[in-house]
Amino acid sequence: MNHSHARPITTINMNPSTQKKLREAGYKTVQDLKETTPVSLSKEMGISSQEALNILQQVIKSEKISSVSVSEVVQKQKFQITTFSHGLDNLLGGKGVPLGQITEFCGVPGVGKTQLGIQLSVNVQIPRRMSGTEGEAVYIDTEGSFIAQRVVEMANGTIIKINESITDENELPLDIETVLSKIHYFRTHDYIELLALLKTMDQFLKEHSMVKLIVIDSIAFPFRQDFSDMTLRTRLLNMIAQDLKNMAETFEIAVVLLNQMTTKFGNPGSGSDKATLVPALGDSFNNKCPNQIILYWRDDMRFAHLIKSANLQEKTIQYQITTNGISDCPSDWLSRKRCWEE
Fold it and tell me: May I ask the CATH architecture of the domain 4-62?
């Protein structure tokens, strides 16, 4: 794992007096510096923007550059976690939520974010013979919106699909107790508890090597309540994003962030003062999520729109949520073959 976040600033080749000023300003590790900007650094240290830029460039130079083979990249992309909606899976690249990356689902209350998180926590357990990850899930609930009975309903729907596909008489059928036991549930009540949990998550993942998915529901909630210091909030969110990225890459797991929406007003001076709904937490945080999907309602129907991806084009699909969980809409059901069955 990349432990650059634990490297002290004394490991950077720079003037000792500069290192002292950095420590006095609260910058103690390399990761602290990687999470700031030249403007913020210049204000906090009382130096020019150019001096701050030089410091951050020195940080970049101190980082070791590593590479992986194309074979490793292909192997990492082999397994994905299906949503049980062919359209939604296709939106995400063909077979669902990718491992080794952060995927962010944003949407207004009631559009199905929590149910999608629950569905993925169940589906991560689909066996490898069905192109599944055969893993376990960590579900971090920051809002108290996790409903155990809904998990049971979705789990039963998945269990039926899996057990109906069994052809090996030596394979034991899946049962509800087994599925529920492989979802590790954590409830946090504020951003301090969330930060503390994430700082211990590395050790938890080492002890639970079958975990292939982390869901945070929602990432925005702890940071939208009584948070007056926006500079601190930005630094904490950047730290969380970096930690989650490291976990995803190191442990080869999918990290799914469920995010809220907020209203953004245009600049009246620019001639555009129209209010629009955008993902919460701002551009700085959302830019750190390589995959971003907006879930929304239109004419009482649910839609998902991919707004950001490193290698996929923007696209919109329709989906539905039934008692058994996420699925394609009836009009698409018969014309599409599910990726997880291939």
Answer: Orthogonal Bundle (1.10)
